[in-house]
Amino acid sequence: MPKVRRNRTRLHNQAVGTPHVSERTFAAHENQVQKLADTVETVNSDGLNSSKKEKRKQRHENWLSKLHTAHQELKKNRKKDTSLNMTMFKEVLPNIEADKQNKDQNKLSQENMSKKRVATKKGRKNTALQEIVRFQNILKHPNFRQNPLQTIQQHVANTVETRPTVEEQDS
Protein backbone atom coordinates (compact mmCIF):
# COMPACT_ATOMS: atom_id res chain seq x y z
CA MET A 1 0.00 0.00 0.00
CA PRO A 2 1.43 3.45 -0.89
CA LYS A 3 2.51 5.96 1.70
CA VAL A 4 0.21 8.87 2.50
CA ARG A 5 1.89 12.14 1.75
CA ARG A 6 1.04 15.60 2.99
CA ASN A 7 0.90 18.52 0.67
CA ARG A 8 3.74 20.88 1.45
CA THR A 9 2.97 24.48 2.23
CA ARG A 10 5.24 27.42 2.36
CA LEU A 11 4.36 28.41 5.91
CA HIS A 12 4.22 26.54 9.20
CA ASN A 13 0.94 25.04 10.24
CA GLN A 14 -0.63 26.71 13.27
CA ALA A 15 -0.65 24.70 16.45
CA VAL A 16 -4.13 23.38 17.11
CA GLY A 17 -5.98 24.59 20.19
CA THR A 18 -3.21 26.70 21.79
CA PRO A 19 -4.53 29.99 23.12
CA HIS A 20 -2.49 33.18 23.12
CA VAL A 21 -0.03 33.53 26.01
CA SER A 22 -2.14 36.12 27.80
CA GLU A 23 -5.24 33.88 27.58
CA ARG A 24 -3.68 30.86 29.29
CA THR A 25 -5.05 29.84 32.67
CA PHE A 26 -1.86 30.35 34.68
CA ALA A 27 -0.68 33.46 32.85
CA ALA A 28 0.24 36.54 34.90
CA HIS A 29 -1.15 39.92 34.07
CA GLU A 30 1.17 42.42 32.43
CA ASN A 31 1.13 44.77 35.41
CA GLN A 32 2.34 41.91 37.67
CA VAL A 33 5.34 40.99 35.44
CA GLN A 34 8.67 42.54 36.33
CA LYS A 35 10.92 43.32 33.39
CA LEU A 36 14.60 42.45 33.64
CA ALA A 37 17.37 44.84 32.63
CA ASP A 38 18.87 42.33 30.18
CA THR A 39 15.67 41.99 28.21
CA VAL A 40 15.20 45.73 27.75
CA GLU A 41 15.84 46.72 24.13
CA THR A 42 18.79 48.97 23.41
CA VAL A 43 17.99 52.56 22.71
CA ASN A 44 19.97 54.82 20.39
CA SER A 45 21.06 58.33 21.30
CA ASP A 46 18.00 59.47 19.33
CA GLY A 47 15.78 57.56 21.77
CA LEU A 48 14.72 55.03 19.11
CA ASN A 49 15.12 51.26 19.23
CA SER A 50 18.17 50.23 17.22
CA SER A 51 18.04 47.79 14.38
CA LYS A 52 20.03 44.59 14.06
CA LYS A 53 22.57 46.19 11.71
CA GLU A 54 23.18 49.07 14.11
CA LYS A 55 23.68 46.70 17.03
CA ARG A 56 26.12 44.70 14.96
CA LYS A 57 28.07 47.85 14.02
CA GLN A 58 28.18 48.89 17.66
CA ARG A 59 29.53 45.51 18.77
CA HIS A 60 32.15 45.66 16.02
CA GLU A 61 33.24 49.15 17.07
CA ASN A 62 33.53 48.04 20.70
CA TRP A 63 35.65 45.10 19.64
CA LEU A 64 37.91 47.31 17.51
CA SER A 65 38.43 49.70 20.41
CA LYS A 66 39.51 46.82 22.66
CA LEU A 67 41.83 45.57 19.96
CA HIS A 68 43.32 49.03 19.47
CA THR A 69 44.09 49.42 23.18
CA ALA A 70 45.78 46.01 23.23
CA HIS A 71 47.98 46.99 20.28
CA GLN A 72 48.90 50.25 21.98
CA GLU A 73 50.08 48.35 25.07
CA LEU A 74 52.21 46.05 22.92
CA LYS A 75 53.81 49.02 21.16
CA LYS A 76 54.68 50.62 24.50
CA ASN A 77 56.32 47.41 25.69
CA ARG A 78 58.33 47.09 22.48
CA LYS A 79 59.61 50.65 22.74
CA LYS A 80 60.84 50.05 26.29
CA ASP A 81 62.82 46.96 25.27
CA THR A 82 64.78 48.66 22.46
CA SER A 83 67.11 50.62 24.75
CA LEU A 84 70.60 49.06 24.94
CA ASN A 85 73.35 49.54 27.42
CA MET A 86 76.84 49.57 25.87
CA THR A 87 78.54 48.56 29.12
CA MET A 88 77.00 45.13 28.73
CA PHE A 89 78.84 44.72 25.43
CA LYS A 90 82.14 45.74 27.01
CA GLU A 91 81.75 43.04 29.64
CA VAL A 92 80.84 40.27 27.19
CA LEU A 93 83.15 41.12 24.27
CA PRO A 94 86.37 39.52 25.63
CA ASN A 95 84.53 36.26 26.33
CA ILE A 96 83.13 36.18 22.81
CA GLU A 97 86.53 36.79 21.26
CA ALA A 98 88.12 34.03 23.36
CA ASP A 99 85.35 31.60 22.37
CA LYS A 100 85.82 32.50 18.71
CA GLN A 101 89.56 31.82 18.88
CA ASN A 102 88.97 28.48 20.59
CA LYS A 103 86.46 27.48 17.92
CA ASP A 104 88.89 28.44 15.16
CA GLN A 105 91.64 26.34 16.74
CA ASN A 106 89.28 23.40 17.16
CA LYS A 107 88.21 23.65 13.53
CA LEU A 108 91.80 23.64 12.32
CA SER A 109 92.71 20.65 14.46
CA GLN A 110 89.61 18.73 13.34
CA GLU A 111 90.36 19.50 9.69
CA ASN A 112 93.91 18.25 10.11
CA MET A 113 92.74 15.10 11.91
CA SER A 114 89.90 14.17 9.61
CA LYS A 115 90.54 12.74 6.19
CA LYS A 116 88.19 12.99 3.30
CA ARG A 117 86.31 9.81 2.50
CA VAL A 118 86.38 8.52 -1.02
CA ALA A 119 82.85 8.13 -2.24
CA THR A 120 83.23 5.72 -5.15
CA LYS A 121 84.38 2.15 -5.29
CA LYS A 122 86.99 3.00 -7.92
CA GLY A 123 88.41 5.79 -5.73
CA ARG A 124 88.68 3.48 -2.70
CA LYS A 125 90.50 0.93 -4.84
CA ASN A 126 92.99 3.55 -6.08
CA THR A 127 93.73 4.80 -2.55
CA ALA A 128 94.25 1.22 -1.35
CA LEU A 129 96.76 0.63 -4.15
CA GLN A 130 98.60 3.86 -3.29
CA GLU A 131 98.81 2.82 0.37
CA ILE A 132 100.22 -0.57 -0.59
CA VAL A 133 102.93 1.07 -2.70
CA ARG A 134 103.73 3.56 0.09
CA PHE A 135 103.98 0.79 2.70
CA GLN A 136 106.33 -1.24 0.46
CA ASN A 137 108.56 1.84 0.02
CA ILE A 138 108.66 2.33 3.80
CA LEU A 139 109.73 -1.29 4.33
CA LYS A 140 112.56 -0.88 1.79
CA HIS A 141 113.87 2.35 3.35
CA PRO A 142 117.29 1.83 5.03
CA ASN A 143 116.52 3.93 8.15
CA PHE A 144 113.37 1.86 8.80
CA ARG A 145 115.34 -1.38 8.39
CA GLN A 146 117.96 -0.28 10.92
CA ASN A 147 115.62 1.06 13.65
CA PRO A 148 111.86 0.90 12.87
CA LEU A 149 110.60 2.39 16.17
CA GLN A 150 112.97 5.36 16.05
CA THR A 151 111.92 6.07 12.44
CA ILE A 152 108.20 5.99 13.31
CA GLN A 153 108.74 8.32 16.29
CA GLN A 154 110.67 10.75 14.09
CA HIS A 155 107.91 10.65 11.47
CA VAL A 156 105.20 11.35 14.09
CA ALA A 157 107.20 14.25 15.54
CA ASN A 158 107.59 15.79 12.07
CA THR A 159 103.97 15.43 10.95
CA VAL A 160 101.92 16.08 14.09
CA GLU A 161 101.96 19.68 15.28
CA THR A 162 102.65 20.27 18.92
CA ARG A 163 99.38 21.66 20.26
CA PRO A 164 99.12 23.51 23.56
CA THR A 165 97.30 21.48 26.18
CA VAL A 166 94.23 22.69 28.06
CA GLU A 167 96.32 23.51 31.16
CA GLU A 168 98.69 25.70 29.14
CA GLN A 169 95.77 27.59 27.53
CA ASP A 170 94.17 28.39 30.91
CA SER A 171 97.32 29.91 32.39
From TrEMBL:
<feature type="compositionally biased region" description="Polar residues">
    <location>
        <begin position="41"/>
        <end position="50"/>
    </location>
</feature>
<comment type="similarity">
    <text>Belongs to the SLX9 family.</text>
</comment>
<feature type="compositionally biased region" description="Basic residues">
    <location>
        <begin position="1"/>
        <end position="11"/>
    </location>
</feature>
<feature type="compositionally biased region" description="Basic residues">
    <location>
        <begin position="115"/>
        <end position="125"/>
    </location>
</feature>
<feature type="region of interest" description="Disordered">
    <location>
        <begin position="1"/>
        <end position="20"/>
    </location>
</feature>
<dbReference type="InterPro" id="IPR028160">
    <property type="entry name" value="Slx9-like"/>
</dbReference>
<feature type="region of interest" description="Disordered">
    <location>
        <begin position="97"/>
        <end position="125"/>
    </location>
</feature>
<keyword id="KW-0539">Nucleus</keyword>
<feature type="region of interest" description="Disordered">
    <location>
        <begin position="39"/>
        <end position="60"/>
    </location>
</feature>
<dbReference type="Pfam" id="PF15341">
    <property type="entry name" value="SLX9"/>
</dbReference>
<feature type="compositionally biased region" description="Basic and acidic residues">
    <location>
        <begin position="97"/>
        <end position="106"/>
    </location>
</feature>
<protein>
    <recommendedName>
        <fullName>Ribosome biogenesis protein SLX9</fullName>
    </recommendedName>
</protein>
